[in-house]
Structure formats: structure tokens, C-alpha cells
């Protein structure tokens, strides 16, 4: 295979933490790039700040830096490693922007680094709205009428000329960050200002509205010989006006005429050739079905969310191919299963692919569930079927939103047609479910088309599903005729949904279906660019074509499904490591997942990949086909655990911790009994299924309380309750509460230090690689709290107690595999908060900081090894790792960004250094909240937080040269303790006030803790202003103390960089 022999070391920049618009698809693409370029013989230097990724494992690249993604850090790494080339287009917008900045500042030229894959001019021509428009004008390709501007005033003039509504598109951003559709001057001023602030170059495009047009995408690949191929044609079923990341879409295009597809392809090829990208490019078009006018919206000269989808939809690994092309190969050098070499590739396949987005509106109180040009989805699911209907319904059940079909979602079936039509006035996350019920209530396809601009064909397909369901409903409580059952399965109706609407037990319906021979057939998606690879999907519309091995050493791994807050890339990390470990142990591996963004759904992670929803129906049929030795459920988060008990009842061998033990950990009364037996303290509490039971528990244990649903991840629905009215409100709002799924109520331990321990257990003993200390106090969800490994503020005797409790609990419960236990230290006593006998979000973090591959070792234990086989000893860790959470509040400007017991972060970063202060500073820098080294600090804290810790933080900041501003109460408290702070007015006290000072750039750091109901509005305004004006803000006193320490460390000296391999080599 030819390759460039003038390049030896290649630098790859990752995308950083998971955020809305830039998720784990870049771990997938970065991992592919590392594999491809190392296979070609290049030395790889990888930089990324996200510890939860496969790409940042020490074995994936030759040298790995887990460092903040900024120019200063990158220059230090470049000076140290001296790469010959930089590959900028596989780390999302973050890597692209950073590469442009390194070039603009002359750093790449200074160190002789060549940019490969996409040249710098191509980045500018693709990302800068003015340059892109010039290029399109030269090509004669039409764009929406638009003008790029750098000020709100100029935006107003352009909008007046174009006429409202207009679309605001910031340059050099992803996920539509900062942009939006505006209908009037007032909205324009807000969104234009926001967009200018979000753009790296302060530029926005003011564009004519093409809302309601069809949105169509092509994924194109070009090589150095100027060969161009189209990997995938994607039809957005939602029209223009909804960001592609939020849009419901299909591949191939189902309603677009071939002639139009050819026009789009010709335009795409002209654009990609003109821009000069080597590798993959996403091109987005809008088409007016009335006038037949086509305009290009934008291109992404890099791998993207759409390219991950296109890769998995077609079996064409775009990132892998792009990396090889950057390394000097051409398309004719790569294998193609159908026609020999990839230069002859054309899209093919007798199946339909559907992508549906997953949102998290329920996590953000006060946010409006409304979709627009700024992306809001946190994850997505992909499904494959022989027909649109089949694939559509598979996608719905793959979303795991509590619905197994399209009908009877929440209370929609109880609404009138007029009410349903009113809900379709603006697109929401529930739009497909609303359409379904509207059709049931008599709405016509034409009426719904006029209301939503969704193509009539898709609406007609849905109308036919509604008609089929109405036919099925006539057999409620009776046996469904076999022919009708077969038709329902061919159209994608799930067992669970059919059982629900017929009033049957799912198991009974499944048994009858199976006995009648109505079962899924399996079909291959061949992989292009490599030899003899494929993955698989099911259909009830065609007989089985997939062979299975009789290998007795075969293990099935259940993935985590779509990303969501509380269950993200960390669980995919564990599943991937399980597959790698099993392969090394010479087991055949079978992966089941439906998330197109992940490494687990890469074609070569496991021996066999089934791209299927994680439901009892789908998993059970794969299990019965493959006949594995057992199934691993504990690595994929709550998704596989929620079906583990039903799988076990159906005869599936669950490897590791039994489902009964998982249920025991969730059953608060059973778990309390175990803790009492072991003599381990727990916060007093109980379980309630109604208001009376809740009030009785509260009377027994006292307020404040921590309340939450059972069997959830990410603190879903978790709140701190301070009095009986709050408790009654909570119980009244709680949904799906049953004796099997009660509300858990515990005494809230105020002012406690929270800690957690991840352990590996073998049923007889457990090993704790490290204890994590949370920087925020108990009451902030562990996923949102910053934490430090090893602990810096927990006494040795408490660390010993935590380790001993963890081992004792694991032994008593018979845990086999991974376990996470959360603790609170209050009044010198260690309390157990909860135990989770499964993988946790922190497994990748602990693995990287401690140098112990926890998921790999746990997998070996699941298959029979014991801890004795590993000879673990407690090792001293000479470095410090600080994890900081990253939040999507910039995408939800109406939400108060205060932390609490319900998780709201989308991702995380890791700061590694020799001292806690510097590691914390790096973590904040990596999370986008770079701490200032001089200026003014605003302090406005609740009365309960006016403590010795606040005094110490204020003194330290003052000693570091900061000027202190404080609101009246806080200023008086500081003065009583000998600290002078200049008073500043709260918002309701007059002008100029805190928000004025933030807007005027007079404040560099905000320390603001929630003050209760009276000042809630003021506090919220302060925190929202901080986000809008990019001022770092802190909402806990513990974090304020850590920030003061971090600033002191950075003031004392420059940050330095060391590779992960070097840090791990220093562990004794």
C-alpha cells in the first residue's frame, strides 16, 4: 500500500468533552484514524481532554496527552513531540478551529508542521461564511440570499432588506450554536448578539428563511487523485427549520427523484473539488418542492455527526478511509466488496435506515420543548429494516423513552383533534407521536402536510400504521389472527406494544408468535474499504440469511443504546473494553447496540455486531440465534439492566452479578437491612409509593430529604426537599410510581463531603483502585461534581473505612464484575449513600488515572478469573487527576445553570498534574471555564454558606491580587471577619447592579450560591449573564476554595505538559 514516506509523526487533535453538537461520534472517528495511520506505520501523537474516550487509552496512540485543547497547550506539545503533520478534520469543530488558530499564529510554520487531510484554505473556504459565499458564486451554485456581518447594527440592516423571518448562522461553530430563526427585530438583536459571541471570528450570516423546504444531505469523499464518490444520500424527514442533529431522517432518500439526487451530487462534487478537501465532507442542501429551486446551506469539511450516521448506515467507514487518504493512499488502493476497489463505490443496499434524536428537556426546568436551528439533542438511535415502516418503528422503541410504539404516548390520545393540531404549530421532541394521534383522531394527510411541511409520503406511511393499529385494537382481550400478527410484525409493531394495546402479557404474545414461526430474519451490511467484514440487522420481511458459528466460547455484550444525560460514552467505553478483552481471551464476541455514534458499533470492535434496539424481543432473538455462553449486561448502563430480569426469566445466562442482586441494591428496604446486618451506617430513609407513605417517612427521619425514583441513572427526578409542601408537590408530580418502582426517600446529610469508590469484585473479595473525593459537597449529583483522584481532603482513616466497607458490601452481595458505591462523610462518620453493582460513569476516569484497565479485568473475572490471579496491591499514585463536568447551558439560555442532585452535564474533562491546584486549573481550562489570574471576583452567597471555608477562599483570592465585590449580606459577613469587599447592588435593588457589572466586563469570576426562593430570580439572572458573557462562575463554596488554590498554582508558574504514558510510568 502506498503511503507518504516524508511524514513520520502525525498529530491528531480530539474534540474534547461531549457537548450538544459534538458527541462521541468523534471518539469513533478519532479511534478509527489512530488505527488506520498506525497500520500505515506512522507514529501517532493524540491530544484530547476527554478521559471517557477509547481514543485516549494509552494503547490507542503512541503518545497520548490528556490536556486542555487550547493554543498554549498545543504549542507546548508540538515543541515537545515535533510532529511532521497535523490531521485536523477528525476531531469535530474543536479540532478544526484549533488547527486554524495554530496556523494563523504561525505556530505550525514555526515548527514545520504540515496540515494533511484538509488544507487550511479549505477550512477557511468551508467555515468562513464570506469565503464560502464567494466560492459558491464562482461555481454558480445558488445559496439562500444572505450577507455576513460582524455587528448587530449591520445584522438589522440586512434583515430589513431580506424581510423577516431570517436565519442567523454563526461562523466556525457546530450544532447551530448561537444561531436561530428570528421573526422580529427584538429577537434579531438577542440572537445576533449571541451568535457573534459564539463565533470564533465574531461573524454571523444573516440569511433568507427557507423554512419548510426539504433538507437533503450528501456525504462525499474525495482523494488526492480527485476521485469523488458519494457515500450516502440522506433525506431529512423534518423540513428546513430544524437542525439536522435534531431532525428525523432516512437513508437512502425515499421521496427524492433520481434526477434531483443527480443534481445534488453534481453540485456536491463541484463544491468539494473547489474547496479542496481530502477525505469526507458533508454537504447540506435545501430544496423547494414548489419551485424546484435548490440552494446549498453549508458544508462540513470534516467528519461530523452525519458522517458517523452515513458510515454506519452504509458500511463505509468514512473516518478510516479519510485517515488513509490523508496518509497518502487513494480510493483505488482500498478494497470494495462489490466491485474490487473503492473508486468504483456507489451506495447500495436493499434496506432503509432511520435516525431519530434523543432529547433531555426533562432535565432542564423552565426550558421550552421546541426545536429550531440550534441543536438540542443529546443522543440518537439508528435502525435498519427492509421497509420504512419497519425501520421507523424499530427506531421508536430503540429510543428508550418509555414507549414501545407510536401510540398512547403520555396523555396524547386523550387530547382532542383541535388540541393535537395546536401542538403541531411548532416542532417539538414529541411531534411524531402527536402526528400519530392526530391521524387516529381523523386529521388528513393533506392537513398535516400543510401544518408541518413533512412530505406527504411519510405522513401516508404513518396513516397506514394507524389504520393497522385500529384493526388490531378490535381484538383487545382476544387472540390476534395469525395473518394480522404477521402483518403487524412486518410493519414494525413490537411485541411489547402489541401486548400493551391488546391487554396481554408480552411473554404470552412472544411465545405464540415464536410457535407460529413469525420470527426475525437476519441480513448483512457489508463493510467497504476492508476485506470480509459485515454487521447485521433484523427484519420480519425476509428470511434469515446469516450463518452462525457453533463456537461454545461465545459471549454477547449489550450496549447502552442512545446517549442521554446520565448514560453516555463512559458505558460504551466499558462495552468496547469487554469486547477487546474477550477477543484477547479467544472468545467470539457478539455486540448488540443501536447507537451510530459509538466505537462499540464500529465494524471491527467485536466479531459480530447486531445493529438492533435493546429490547427483550430483539435481544432474545439474537441470543436464541447465536446461542452464546452468556450475556454481559452490567457494562451498558441502565439500558441492559432494565431488561436483565426478563432475559433471565426467558432462560438467558447473565454473566457476573445476578439481576436479583441489582434489584436488591435498588430496593431501599432490602439494602438497608443488609447494611444494618453489616453494621454500616446509612442515612435514615425508606420507600414510598404515595404521599401518605412519604409524609410518614419524613416524620420519622426529619427534613431536609433527598428524594428520587428507583431504577434510574443520572439522578433523574432527584431533588432535595426542605419541607412537607415541597414533598407533596414532588409526590404529586412523580410518574410511573409502582410497588416495583417506588420513590426512594433518605435524610439529606448537610455539609457532608461526598466520595465514591469503583471496585472490581469476584464474588469473594473486591479491589478498590482509588477513592474519588467530590469537590462539591453532598447534594450535587456525582456526575456533575468535580472530583479528585487520589483524595486530597479525606483523612486516611476514612479512606480505609471506605475501602473496607466497599469490600464488605461486595462480598455480602456476591458482586461479580464492577461496582460503584457512593459515600458521605458527615460529623466524622462514613455513611453509605447507594451501591450500584454495575459499571459506572467513573470507570474510564479511574482506569486512566490509576493505570488499571477496570473493564478489561472485570470481563476476565466474569469469565472465571479471580482477583488472586491479578495480585493487586494498593499503589501510591504520585500525580493528581481532577475531573470537571461540562454542561449544555449555553444551548439552553433560559435555564438557571445551578447544580443540584439531578445530573445535567453532557460530558467531562480531566486535568492531570503533580499538584491539586494545577490539576484543578487544567480541568477548569479544559471545561471552558478558564480561571482568571487577575481582576475582580464577585461574591454573593446564601447565608448557610457563609462559613470558614468562604473566609479562607476570600482571603486567598485577595492575597492573589483580586479585588472583591460582594452583595450586602456577603460583604457584611466578610467585613466582620476582617475582609474588605466593595458592595454591589442586586438586580432588584437598583442600578448599576451585578448584571450591569458583568455586561461591562468589570467582573472576571463569579462565586454565587443559591439563596432560596427570595433571591432566586436575582441569582438566576447573575448565572445566566455569566454564561452569556463567558465569565467563569462557581455555585458552591467548596469549588470556590478549589478555584482559589488553582489560581495560586497557576500564578506560581506556567502549566507543563506530560503524556499519559509518562504519568502512568511514575506509579509505584
What does this structure look like?
The protein is 37% helix and 20% strand. The mean pLDDT is 91. The strands form nine sheets. Strands 29, 30, 31, 32, 33, 34, 35 and 36 form an eight-stranded antiparallel β-sheet that branches. Strands 14-13-10-11-12-17-18 form a seven-stranded antiparallel β-sheet, sandwiched between helices. With 1068 residues, the protein is an alpha/beta fold. It starts with 8 loop residues before the first strand and ends with a helix. Helix 25 (691-701) packs antiparallel against helix 26 and helix 30 (916-926) packs across helix 35.
Main pleated sheet: 8 strands, antiparallel
Strands, total number: 41
Structural class: alpha/beta
User: How confident is the prediction overall: mean pLDDT?
Assistant: 91
Distance between the termini: 43 Å
Low-confidence stretches: none
The fraction of residues assigned to DSSP E strands is 15-25%
CA-based shape: globular
Count of helical stretches: 36
Estimate percent helicity: 25-40%
**Rg of Cα set:** 28 Å
Question: What is this structure, in a nutshell?
Answer:
The protein is of the alpha/beta class.
Draw up the topology in text.
Layout lengths: L8 E5 L11 H15 L3 E6 L14 E4 L4 H11 L3 E3 L4 H13 L2 H4 L3 E2 L4 H8 L1 H11 L6 E4 L2 H11 L3 E5 L9 E3 L2 H14 L5 E5 L5 E9 L5 E9 L12 E3 L6 H18 L3 E9 L6 E7 L4 H10 L3 H9 L8 E2 L3 E2 L10 E7 L20 E7 L2 H11 L18 H7 L7 H10 L4 H8 L3 H18 L8 H9 L4 H8 L3 H10 L5 E6 L7 E6 L14 E5 L10 H16 L3 E6 L14 E4 L4 H11 L3 E3 L5 H12 L9 H8 L1 H11 L6 E4 L2 H11 L3 E5 L9 E3 L2 H10 L9 E5 L5 E10 L3 E2 L3 E7 L9 E3 L6 H18 L2 E11 L2 E8 L6 H8 L3 H9 L17 E7 L20 E7 L2 H11 L9 E5 L7 H12 L3 E4 L1 H9 L5 E2 L10 H6 L5 E4 L7 H13 L4 E2 L2 H16 L7 H6 L3
Parallel strand pairs: 1-2, 1-4, 2-3, 4-5, 21-22, 21-24, 22-23, 37-38, 37-40, 38-39, 40-41
Antiparallel strand pairs: 6-9, 7-8, 7-9, 10-11, 10-13, 11-12, 12-17, 13-14, 15-16, 17-18, 19-20, 25-28, 26-27, 26-28, 29-30, 29-31, 29-33, 31-32, 32-35, 33-34, 35-36
Helix pairs in contact: 1-11, 5-6, 7-8, 13-14, 14-16, 15-16, 18-19, 20-29, 25-26, 30-35, 31-35
Amino acid at each position: 500500500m502506498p503511503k507518504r514516506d516524508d511524514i513520520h509523526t502525525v498529530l491528531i487533535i480530539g474534540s474534547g468533552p461531549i457537548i450538544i453538537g459534538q458527541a462521541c461520534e468523534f471518539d469513533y472517528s478519532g479511534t478509527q484514524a489512530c488505527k488506520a495511520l498506525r497500520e500505515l506505520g506512522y507514529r501517532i501523537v493524540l491530544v484530547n481532554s476527554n478521559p471517557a474516550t477509547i481514543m485516549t487509552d494509552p494503547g490507542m496512540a503512541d503518545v497520548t496527552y490528556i490536556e486542555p485543547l487550547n493554543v498554549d497547550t498545543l504549542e507546548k506539545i508540538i515543541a515537545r513531540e515535533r510532529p511532521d503533520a497535523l490531521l485536523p478534520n477528525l476531531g469535530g469543530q474543536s479540532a478544526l478551529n484549533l488547527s486554524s488558530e495554530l496556523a494563523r499564529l504561525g505556530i505550525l510554520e514555526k515548527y514545520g508542521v504540515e496540515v494533511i487531510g484538509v488544507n487550511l484554505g479549505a477550512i477557511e473556504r468551508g467555515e468562513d461564511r464570506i469565503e464560502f459565499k464567494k466560492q459558491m458564486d464562482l461555481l454558480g451554485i445558488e445559496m439562500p440570499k444572505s450577507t455576513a456581518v460582524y455587528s448587530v447594527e449591520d445584522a438589522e440592516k440586512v434583515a430589513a432588506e431580506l424581510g423577516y423571518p431570517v436565519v442567523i448562522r454563526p461562523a466556525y461553530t457546530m450544532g447551530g450554536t448561537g444561531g436561530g430563526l428570528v421573526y422580529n427585530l427584538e429577537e434579531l438583536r438577542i440572537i445576533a448578539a449571541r451568535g457573534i459571541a459564539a463565533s470564533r471570528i465574531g461573524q454571523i450570516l444573516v440569511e433568507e428563511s427557507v423554512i419548510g423546504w426539504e433538507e437533503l444531505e450528501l456525504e462525499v469523499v474525495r482523494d488526492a487523485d480527485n476521485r469523488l464518490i458519494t457515500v450516502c444520500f440522506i433525506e431529512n424527514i423534518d423540513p428546513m427549520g430544524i437542525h439536522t442533529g435534531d431532525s428525523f431522517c432516512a437513508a437512502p432518500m425515499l421521496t427524492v427523484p433520481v434526477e434531483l439526487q443527480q443534481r445534488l451530487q453534481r453540485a456536491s462534487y463541484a463544491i468539494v473539488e473547489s474547496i479542496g478537501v481530502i477525505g469526507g465532507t458533508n454537504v447540506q442542501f435545501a430544496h423547494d418542492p414548489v419551485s424546484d429551486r435548490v440552494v446549498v446551506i453549508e458544508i462540513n469539511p470534516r467528519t461530523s455527526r452525519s458522517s458517523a450516521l452515513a458510515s454506519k448506515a452504509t458500511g463505509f467507514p468514512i473516518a478510516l478511509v479519510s485517515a488513509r487518504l490523508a496518509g497518502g493512499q487513494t480510493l483505488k488502493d482500498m478494497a470494495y466488496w462489490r466491485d474490487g476497489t473503492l473508486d468504483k463505490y456507489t451506495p447500495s443496499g436493499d434496506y432503509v435506515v432511520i435516525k431519530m434524536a434523543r432529547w433531555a428537556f426533562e432535565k432542564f426546568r423552565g426550558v421550552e420543548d421546541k426545536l429550531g436551528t440550534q441543536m438540542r439533542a443529546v443522543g440518537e438511535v439508528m435502525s435498519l429494516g427492509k421497509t420504512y415502516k419497519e425501520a421507523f418503528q424499530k427506531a421508536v422503541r430503540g429510543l428508550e423513552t418509555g414507549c414501545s410504539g407510536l401510540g398512547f404516548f403520555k396523555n396524547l390520545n386523550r387530547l382532542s383533534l383541535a388540541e393535537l393540531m395546536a401542538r403541531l404549530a411548532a416542532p417539538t421532541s414529541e411531534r411524531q407521536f402527536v402526528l400519530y394521534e392526530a391521524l387516529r383522531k381523523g386529521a388528513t394527510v393533506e392537513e398535516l402536510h400543510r401544518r408541518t411541511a413533512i412530505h406527504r409520503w411519510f405522513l401516508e406511511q404513518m396513516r397506514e400504521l394507524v389504520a393497522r393499529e385500529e384493526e388490531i385494537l378490535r381484538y383487545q382481550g382476544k387472540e390476534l389472527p395469525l395473518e394480522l400478527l404477521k402483518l403487524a410484525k412486518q410493519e414494525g409493531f413490537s411485541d411489547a406494544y402489541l401486548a400493551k394495546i391488546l391487554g396481554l402479557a408480552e411473554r404470552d404474545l412472544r411465545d405464540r408468535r415464536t410457535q407460529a414461526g413469525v420470527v426475525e430474519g437476519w441480513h448483512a451490511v457489508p463493510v467497504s474499504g476492508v476485506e470480509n467484514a459485515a454487521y447485521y440487522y433484523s427484519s420480519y420481511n425476509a428470511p434469515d440469511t446469516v450463518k452462525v458459528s457453533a463456537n461454545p466460547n461465545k459471549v454477547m455484550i449489550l450496549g447502552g443504546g442512545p446517549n442521554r444525560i446520565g448514560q453516555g460514552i463512559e458505558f460504551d467505553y466499558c462495552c468496547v473494553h469487554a469486547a477487546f478483552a474477550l477477543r484477547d481471551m479467544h472468545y467470539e464476541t457478539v455486540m448488540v447496540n443501536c447507537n451510530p455514534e459509538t466505537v462499540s458499533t464500529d465494524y471491527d470492535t467485536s466479531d459480530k455486531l447486531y445493529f438492533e434496539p435493546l429490547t427483550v424481543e430483539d435481544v432474545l432473538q439474537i441470543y436464541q440465534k447465536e446461542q452464546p455462553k452468556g450475556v454481559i449486561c452490567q457494562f451498558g448502563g441502565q439500558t441492559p439492566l432494565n431488561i436483565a430480569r426478563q432475559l433471565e426469566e426467558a432462560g438467558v445466562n447473565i454473566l457476573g452479578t445476578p439481576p436479583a442482586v441489582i434489584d436488591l441494591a435498588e430496593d431501599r428496604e432490602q439494602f438497608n437491612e443488609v447494611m444494618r446486618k453489616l453494621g454500616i451506617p446509612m442515612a435514615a430513609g425508606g420507600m414510598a409509593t404515595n404521599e401518605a407513605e412519604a409524609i410518614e417517612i419524613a416524620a420519622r427521619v426529619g427534613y431536609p430529604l433527598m428524594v428520587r425514583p428507583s431504577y434510574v441513572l443520572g439522578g433523574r427526578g432527584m431533588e432535595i426537599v426542605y419541607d412537607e409542601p415541597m414533598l407533596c408537590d414532588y409526590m404529586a408530580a412523580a410518574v410511573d410510581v409502582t410497588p416495583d418502582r417506588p420513590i426512594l426517600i433518605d435524610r439529606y446529610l448537610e455539609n457532608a463531603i461526598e466520595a465514591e469508590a469503583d471496585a472490581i469484585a469476584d464474588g469473594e473479595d473486591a479491589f478498590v483502585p482509588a477513592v474519588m473525593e467530590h469537590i462539591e459537597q453532598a447534594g450535587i449529583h456525582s456526575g456533575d461534581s468535580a472530583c479528585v483522584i487520589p483524595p486530597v481532603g479525606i483523612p486516611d482513616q476514612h479512606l480505609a473505612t471506605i475501602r473496607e466497607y466497599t469490600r464488605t458490601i461486595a462480598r455480602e452481595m456476591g458482586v461479580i464484575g464492577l461496582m460503584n458505591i457512593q459515600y458521605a462523610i458527615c460529623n466524622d462518620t462514613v455513611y453509605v449513600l447507594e451501591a450500584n453493582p454495575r459499571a459506572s460513569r467513573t470507570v474510564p476516569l479511574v482506569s486512566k488515572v490509576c493505570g488499571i484497565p477496570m473493564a478489561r479485568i472485570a470481563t476476565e473475572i466474569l469469565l472465571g478469573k479471580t482477583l488472586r490471579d491479578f495480585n493487586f496491591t494498593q499503589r501510591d499514585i504520585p500525580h493528581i487527576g481532577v475531573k470537571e463536568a461540562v454542561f449544555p447551558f449555553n444551548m439552553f439560555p433560559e435555564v438557571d445553570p445551578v447544580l443540584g442532585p439531578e445530573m445535567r452535564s453532557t460530558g467531562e474533562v480531566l486535568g492531570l498534574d503533580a499538584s491539586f491546584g494545577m490539576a484543578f486549573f487544567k480541568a477548569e481550562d479544559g471545561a471552558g471555564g478558564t480561571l482568571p489570574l487577575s481582576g475582580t471576583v464577585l461574591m454573593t452567597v446564601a447565608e448557610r454558606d457563609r462559613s470558614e471555608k468562604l473566609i479562607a477562599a476570600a482571603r486567598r483570592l485577595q492575597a492573589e491580587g483580586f479585588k472583591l465585590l460582594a452583595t450586602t449580606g456577603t460583604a457584611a459577613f466578610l467585613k466582620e471577619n476582617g475582609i474588605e469587599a466593595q458592595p454591589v447592588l442586586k438586580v432588584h435593588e437598583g442600578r448599576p447592579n451585578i448584571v450591569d457589572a458583568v455586561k461591562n466586563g468589570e467582573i472576571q469570576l463569579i462565586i454565587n450560591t443559591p439563596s432560596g426562593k427570595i433571591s432566586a430570580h436575582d441569582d438566576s439572572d447573575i448565572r445566566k449573564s455569566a454564561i452569556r458573557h463567558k465569565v467563569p462562575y462557581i455555585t458552591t463554596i467548596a469549588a470556590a476554595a478549589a478555584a482559589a488554590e488553582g489560581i495560586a498554582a497557576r500564578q506560581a508558574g506556567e502549566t507543563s505538559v506530560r503524556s499519559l504514558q509518562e504519568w502512568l510510568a511514575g506509579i509505584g
